[in-house]
Structure formats: C-alpha cells, structure tokens
Amino acid sequence: MHLTHYAAPANDQPGGGAANFCPNCGQPVSATDTFCPNCGANLQVATGDTNQFQTSQQPQATTPTQQRTAPTRPARKPRQPWSKKKKRLWWGIGVAAVAVIGFFVWGSNHYSRAATLDRTINDIKSGKHLTDDFTSASSDLTLSKSKLLPINRYYSDHSQDLSKLKADLDNSGRSSDGDFVYEQNGHHLLFFPKYQISVSPVYPTVTTNHTGNVITLDNHKIATATSDSFTKKLSAMVPGEYHLQSQGKIGGHNLTNSSDYHITSSKTYDLELTTISVELDTVAGSNVYLNGKKIGTADSTGTYQIKNEPWTSDMSVYAAYTSSAGKATTPTTKLKKDDDGSYVDLDYKDMMDKGDADDFISNLFEAAQNLADNDDSTDDDGDDMSDFFVNGTSNSYYADLRKMAKGYNDNDNLDAIGMDTDVTDVKPGPNGTSEVVFTVEYTFGLSDYDYDHVQDFQYTATVQPASDDSSQSYQILKYGHAVKTSDRHEDD
C-alpha cells in the first residue's frame, strides 16, 4: 500500500507557531520580508506595522482571476534634489517675474496723468523737451523747438500764470483761454498712456501807419509797409510771448515802436509810429515803471513826466513805493494814444487820503482825552476808542493807549490834559495798508505850578480798511514807538 503525503497544516510547519501569509495573494511569507515574493505587495503598508503581520490558520482560497486583478502598489522612490540647471531655470523665472512687475509699477507711476503734467510744467519753465510735451491741434502748425520757445519765454517770467495754467489743465484739462488742452495722445512702450498738451494756433494781424516801415517778429523781418495804412495777417503761431517791432523815419526822426506782446488770440496789434507825452501823478518818491522797466522817480509833488516816448499799443505804466513796512504797487494802467498831452493818475489801492487820516487821528485822541478827563472813552460822535483799532479791545495798541489815558485820569497832580494831533504824511503800505505819520501835542496842566508842561511825540500808524461791522472806515493795525520831538514849559 502506498502512502500519500499531504502538506502538514500551517501550525505544524517547522519552527512552530503561527504562520505568516501575504494579505494580497495568501502565499506564505517570512517575518523579515518587506515585499511578498509571490505578488510583490508591500507587506508593511498592508499590515500598517512593519513588525506585525496578519496571522491565519489557513489562507482563503483565491481564484486565478482574483490573483490577476488584485491591485498592487509600487514602492515609493525617494525624492531627488534639484539639479543646478533646474535651480538656475527657476531662479531666472523668478527674477523675470519681479522685473515685469517692477516695470509695470514704474511705468504706471511715471506715465500717469499727474506725473506727466508735473514734468511738462517743469519743461515749460526750463524750455527743455518741449517738442515731446506738445502736439499741434492744426495741420497748418508744425511744431519745433524754436516755435515753442515763446511759451517758455512768457511762463518763465510769469510764475503765477504758470501755476494757474497747471491748475486749469489738472482740473478741467483745458486752459482758461482755450489755447491748450491736456489729453491722452497714444501710448508709451505699448502699455502706458501718453499725455501731451494740444496747442490751438493763433493768427494775429499787425498794422502800421507809414510806407516803408519795417516790421519784425522776434528780430526777423516779416514785412515792409507798402502804404500808410498797412495790414498783414501772420501765419499760424503758438500762443506765447513775442517781440513785435515797427521801425521807420518820420519827419527826419528815426522812430521805433517796439514791445513784447503776450499773444493768445487772433487780434490786431497796432505798430503805428508815433510818440506820446503824459504827466503821471502818484505818491512822492514812488518809482515809475514803463512796460515793466523803471524809468524814473516821482518828484516831491508826486509828478513824473513822460516826454515824446514812442507809443506802443501794449504800453503800460505803474508806480511802486517802498518803505520800512514793505513794498506797495499801484494797478497797471495802459496808455492810449488819446492820453498824449494829458494827466494819468497812478493811485495806490485802499490808500488813506490825508484829510481822512487827519479826521481819523483827531477823533481817536479826542476819545483818549475824554477818558483822561472824565473816564469816558468815546469821541464827540459817540464812537468808542476801541472802534479805531483792528480787533477792538483785543488789540495790544488799544490797550497801551487806554492804559496811558487812565494813568492821566488817576494822576492827582494834573488839573487838565490836552491832546492836539496833526497828520504830517500818509504813505502807501503793502497789502492795501497806509502808513500814517502824525504828531500829538500833550499839554499837562499842573496843579502846583503856574506853567503847563508841553511835550510833542511823533507816531507812525499802520492803518487798513475797516471791517464791515465797524463804525469807522479805517482801523489801526499797529503803530510804532513814540518819538519825542519837543519838551517845554509854557506859562499859563
């Protein structure tokens, strides 16, 4: 009889104890195996512990199909470090990204509407890069550096007008006269807006009054008069400052009509050759200016004579007076041909008339004397002494005058006090003020003496137009230290 050998049960295997089986295919595995030698399954992942395996008396039978379709997990490969080439690639991408972002941030700021306008205004003042800042709004005006210089010529000498131009362009995009429009005109570097000032041309006309007169524009001859009523319309020009001149010989005398003109419209400019004589009346000692240039000083009567001065259609005069308080100027007055042989007043705005100043100072010290005599600080019209001062009782100069008058009132050695005033001069001050020079004669009646003590003091008060709620037309802003000019005794 033949004996058939059967595989011993798992627990009867050599070595004893429970056998280990692959949880995927059921084949026996060793405790030291990491992967199943039959199917390659990761035994550590399958059991969740590298030191423990699933134990069973008998593995479950599996069909060949189940064995073929059972999923397997490939072993994880350790992460490899980046190569130098890969590092350089990613560093380059990072640097490029930062550069692109920086480029757009810079361009958005540099080419913004406000930043471009700031640079344009600086260029107008300096005369640089004007062809980049301006564009023509008309086909018959081709811009160039020389054609744009009249803009720089005017605004470099008129900073306030340049500030106004900037404000107009910033707020509305258009100058007040309509000659300049600030707008976008294309792009910079494909991405950023390009802002420029679009110029509208002007077409001025010039006239002169004698055949043969030579007319020049910025020292370049543009015409010779062919009649005694010659007219010429000029070609398209950029608004700005130009020098127009007409020159000829009349009655054996060489005459020139020459002046700088701020041309901003298509109007007519008269270059007639004639002379003008005018008497200017202003404050004595004032400097007189003709077309912005000092030509002399008014005499002690406030008079200055202009004699046989070649007349221009843009001829203007003003006066300026400088004192320790500052500089005051009169409004500018244009001289017309009809002013020849006449008088022209150059008055300082808000300056106090000498007669008004005399009444004003007299009433002020009338109130001060009443306070010294009977403790009543009003003048004969009932106006309080504080009404004569800017800010009333808060004015420190009012407080000083009141303190002085009260001191006289409290002095038992005084029988009486007299205050007589006299305005000796009125001069213009800065910002519409007046410098009023006056004297006060103080007469002290002494109770123990048979004479009066008399003192004269001189003051200079800064006076300005009063506020609407004041009873006075003018008020004292301040006055300087009193200067004693006389001190004497007079018998009763």
From TrEMBL:
What parts of the sequence cross the membrane?
A: 89-107
**Record's superkingdom?**
Bacteria
Keywords, A to Z? Membrane, Transmembrane, Transmembrane helix
Extract the Pfam families matched here. TcaA_3rd_4th (PF22820), Zn_Ribbon_1 (PF13240)
InterPro entries in alphabetical order: TcaA_4th, Zinc_ribbon_dom
Q: Which residues form the Zinc-ribbon domain?
A: 21-43
Q: Quick one: where's region Disordered? A: 52-83
Q: Which residues, if any, are the signal sequence?
A: none
Where does the TcaA 4th domain lie? Answer: 274-346
Low complexity composition bias: residue spans = 54-73
Stretches of Basic residues bias are at 74-83
Q: What is this protein called?
A: Zinc ribbon domain-containing protein
- Naturally occurring in which organism (per UniProt): Levilactobacillus lanxiensis
